[in-house]
């Protein structure tokens, strides 16, 4: 989910008496939104709670989240998780990289999807 959307929902909940902690990877966005409590995990987008199948890391991140919820010492508190996604930082360069071959396949899939959506839309218009 979009970091900004999560932050705005968290702020709304906080304003209505429900404490929150945002766990995420887009530090600049979350801190700009001004959430009350933020656990920053420097991981690829879509993996804020740790590596898939790494239960120990995920459990540690969840424990840090609960600790932050209970013990934040000031508004807009940010805590950085001590974990690395990889000792090798090359993941940052290749994360979500789309090759030329993949780009063409994605374009074709998008064209098919748009055509299907247009048919559904046209059918709904005719039914009205």
Task: Summarize the entry for a quick read.
With 128 residues, the protein is mainly alpha-helical.
Description:
The chain is mainly alpha-helical and 128 residues long. The protein has 2 domains: 83 residues, no CATH class; 31 residues. It is 54% helix and 9% strand. The chain is flat.
Mean pLDDT: 91
**N-to-C series of helices and strands:** HEHEHEHH
Using only C-alpha atoms, the radius of gyration works out to: 20 Å
Tell me the quaternary state.
Answer: single chain
Number of domains: 2
Helical content (DSSP H or I, runs of 4+): 40-55%
Which regions have little confidence, pLDDT < 50, spanning 5+ residues? Answer: none
Q: Please give the number of β-strands.
A: 3
Estimated structural class: mainly alpha
What is the number of helices? Answer: 5
Please list the strands of the largest sheet in the order they lie side by side.
1-2-3
State the distance separating the first and last CA atoms: 34 Å
Shape: flat
- What fraction of residues sit in β-strands? 5-15%
The major β-sheet equals: 3 strands, parallel
Main features:
128 residues; mainly alpha; 2 domains; three-stranded parallel sheet; 5 helices; 54% helix; flat
SSE blueprint:
Blueprint: H1 3-15, E1 22-24, H2 27-33, E2 37-40, H3 55-71, E3 77-80, H4 91-94, H5 100-127
Parallel strand pairs: 1-2, 2-3
